[in-house]
Amino acid sequence: MTGGRLDKDERASDALDKADLRQAYERGRKDERAMRKRHPLLMTVTFLFALVGVALLALAALNGSFMQAGDVVDQRLNVAADRAAPAVNEAASNAGQRLRDAGAAAKARADNPG
Predict the structure, then answer these.
(1) What is the chain's mean pLDDT, rounded?
(2) pLDDT in the model for residue 45
(3) Alpha helices (H) along the chain
(4) Is the pLDDT confidence value at 12 over 60?
(5) Rounded CA gap, 27 and 30, in Å?
(6) Are the C-beta atoms of 73 and 56 separated by less than 8 Å?
(7) CA-to-CA distance for 41 and 89, rounded, in angstroms?
(8) Confidence of residue 1 (pLDDT cuts 50, 70, 90)
(9) How far does the chain reach from its first CA to its final CA, in angstroms?
(10) Contact yes or no for 73/59 (Cβ under 8 A)
(11) Could you report the per-residue pLDDT of 35-75, keeping only the tens digit for each?
(12) Residues 69, 60: contact at Cβ < 8 Å?
């Protein structure tokens, strides 16, 4: 029996080893995925910051310098703020008036039950 094999069913042993290897691989993937859980809001904010960075780089390339690109961004932000300020003030005024009206209506209901 020289040169003979001790394990006669070598195929079953290989299949078992492959199954164990596959199971360990999947368990490792799950463990790694659990360790690297990301918050969707944080990833969205990170992505938006990256988009802003790319836009600023594009503006710098188009305008020839970061200073000129910053001036363009500042001008556009000022225009947007100037347009938004009256709308925000009006919305705040309307909200204040509605709160006063609701308070008066609640007081009238409390004074006249029935």
Answers:
(1) 82
(2) 93
(3) 10-35, 40-63, 66-111
(4) no
(5) 5
(6) yes
(7) 29
(8) very low
(9) 107
(10) yes
(11) 777 788 888 999 999 999 998 888 888 878 878 878 888 89
(12) yes
- Looking at residue 65, what DSSP letter applies? S
Distance CA 107, CA 113 (A): 10
Provide the CA 9 distance to its chain's centre, in angstroms: 54
3-class state of residue 15 by DSSP: helix
For the entire predicted model, the pTM comes to 0.38
Burial pattern 29-42, b for ≥16 Cβ within 10 A else e, equals eeeeeeeeeeeeee
The DSSP secondary-structure symbol of 2 reads T
Name the residue with tokens 């690109």.
Answer: 69
Is the Cβ–Cβ distance between 106 and 113 less than 8 Å?
no
CA atoms in the 13 A half-sphere facing the CB of 109: 6
Of 56, 80, 51, which Cα lies nearest the Cα of 69? 56
For residues 18 and 16, what is the distance between their CA atoms, to the nearest angstrom? 5
Distance of CA 98 to the CA centre of its chain: 35
Q: For 72-89, how does the pLDDT look when each residue is reduced to its tens digit (9 = 90+)?
A: 888 988 998 888 888 888
